[in-house]
Each structure stands twice: as structure tokens, then as C-alpha cells.
Design a protein that fits this description.
Strand content: under 5%
Pfam families: Hemerythrin, ScdA_N
Main location: cytoplasm
Distance between the termini: 68 Å
Protein name: Iron-sulfur cluster repair di-iron protein
Largest sheet: none
Radius of gyration: 22 Å
Subcellular location: Cytoplasm
Organism: Chitinophaga pollutisoli
Number of strands: 0
Helix content: over 70%
């Protein structure tokens, strides 16, 4: 959009829910007072309109990841990407979604009791994912990096304290299954993220963000279960074959 200053806030959010994060950052009400232009809102709140439009332009320029051949990546590079892209996304979005879900449950929970269930499920998922990612970042991924460096230098890999890489991998995959099931429940309770007729802009933003979160989680899990973990197991097996040779 060329003239963001004259854009209607509510329409911007309706067209691209990611803009809601910008308005929330500047404490601009995009829900009940969404019929104002960006310029009007900034003037009323004495906010630097250049900063707001710059942030909006950055958000509107976001492009989804497509067509990347992750299978060609070295496992340590893929692990770094997962942390930088997907772990960071999960960590950043958890407090945003928790705030939106808390507000929706408080305002619309009586008419839509499923919102309370969705908020509870998401809070459970947030706690589990936070611990899950820490285990990967502190235990599994460093060992994968260690194996890659050892292979590159022609050195043997030091045996991990967890016995074999298949042990943490099995645990991570089990936890992936749990979170996949939890989000299937959220998807069902929300009627596939369908906003009811009485839903406001906050309702639409929350459901759109939940859907995006689930889609990112699917890619996140795919990269680990189907690419990173098999590569790590193959790498460990290669070291095992080297040490077993006469």
C-alpha cells in the first residue's frame, strides 16, 4: 500500500493480521476504534507517524518461506536455522497469543466458552514447547554440532552422556506428537479458526495468529522429524561403523 498514513486501521488489520502487532506496539486500538486512519490515530496519541508506517511497511513486506531445499543443508546449519527461525518465532509469539487469548476469554468467554478451553490448551502448549526447545538447544543440538565438527576434522565423536542420539530424538518426537494433538484440539474447538459472526478484530487477529502458529509448528516439526533427526542418526551410525572397523 502506497499511502499508509491514510489507510484505515481496521481494514489494514483485516487485510493482513500481522499489522495488529504494530498497532499493539504503539497502543493503538485497532478493534473498537479501528475506523480511524493511521494518521488520525498517530495525531491523537502524539505518536511519530514515520515510525509507525516504517514498522507497517516492514510487516507488510514479510514473505513466507517457500521452495527451500532443507535436505541439502548440513545438520548443524539446519539446527541453527531451526533455533533462529522457529524457536525464536515460538518464543516471540507465545506472550502475544497469551495476551490476546486472555482478553478474548474475558470479553467473549461467556458467549463462546470454547475460548477458555483454547486458552488453556495454548498455555499448556506454551509451557511444554518452552521446555522442549531448551532441551534441544542445550542437549541435542550441541551434540549434533559436535558430530559435524568431528567429521569435518576427521576425528572420532565423543560419546554423549545420553548414550545414543536416538534417545533424545525419541523423546523429542514423542513431544512433537503431543503438541500436534494439542493443536488439533485447538483447531477443532475453533472450527478451523473460523471467526463467529459476532467476532471483533481482536478475535480475527487471534485466530489468524493461532493458525499461523500451527502452520509454523508443522514446518518446525517436519524439519526436525523428517530431516534433522535422520541426518543426526546417520551421522552417529557413520562414526559407529568407523570405530567397529578392524
Amino acid at each position: 500500500m502506497n499511502n499508509l498514513e491514510q489507510a484505515i486501521i481496521g481494514q489494514l488489520v483485516a487485510d493482513n493480521y500481522r499489522t495488529a502487532a504494530v498497532f499493539s506496539k504503539y497502543h493503538i486500538d485497532f478493534c473498537c476504534n479501528g475506523n480511524r486512519t493511521v494518521q488520525e490515530a498517530c495525531t491523537q496519541k502524539k505518536i511519530d507517524i514515520a515510525a509507525v508506517t516504517s514498522d507497517l511497511q516492514a510487516v507488510l513486506g514479510i514473505q513466507p518461506e517457500t521452495g527451500t531445499d532443507y535436505n541439502s543443508w548440513q545438520p548443524d546449519v539446519l539446527a541453527i536455522h531451526i533455533v533462529d527461525r522457529h524457536h525464536a518465532y515460538v518464543s516471540n509469539q507465545i506472550p502475544v497469543l497469551q495476551a490476546y487469548l486472555h482478553k478474548l476469554s474475558r470479553v467473549h468467554g461467556d458467549a463462546h466458552p470454547e475460548l477458555v478451553q483454547i486458552a488453556q490448551l495454548f498455555n499448556e502448549s506454551a509451557a511444554e514447547l518452552t521446555m522442549h526447545m531448551k532441551k534441544e538447544e542445550l542437549v541435542l543440538f550441541p551434540y549434533i554440532r559436535q558430530m559435524v565438527v568431528a567429521q569435518q576434522n576427521g576425528n572420532p565423536a565423543h560419546p554423549p552422556h545420553f548414550g545414543t542420539v536416538s534417545n533424545p530424538i525419541s523423546m523429542m518426537m514423542h513431544e512433537h506428537d503431543q503438541e500436534g494433538e494439542r493443536f488439533r484440539q485447538i483447531q477443532g474447538l475453533s472450527n478451523d479458526y473460523t471467526v463467529p459472526p459476532d467476532g471483533c478484530n481482536t478475535y480475527r487477529v487471534t485466530y489468524a495468529l493461532l493458525k499461523e502458529f500451527q502452520e509454523d509448528l508443522h514446518l518446525h516439526i517436519h524439519l526436525e522429524n523428517n530431516i534433522l533427526f535422520p541426518k543426526a542418526a546417520d551421522l552417529e551410525n557413520a562414526f559407529a561403523h568407523q570405530t567397529s572397523r578392524p
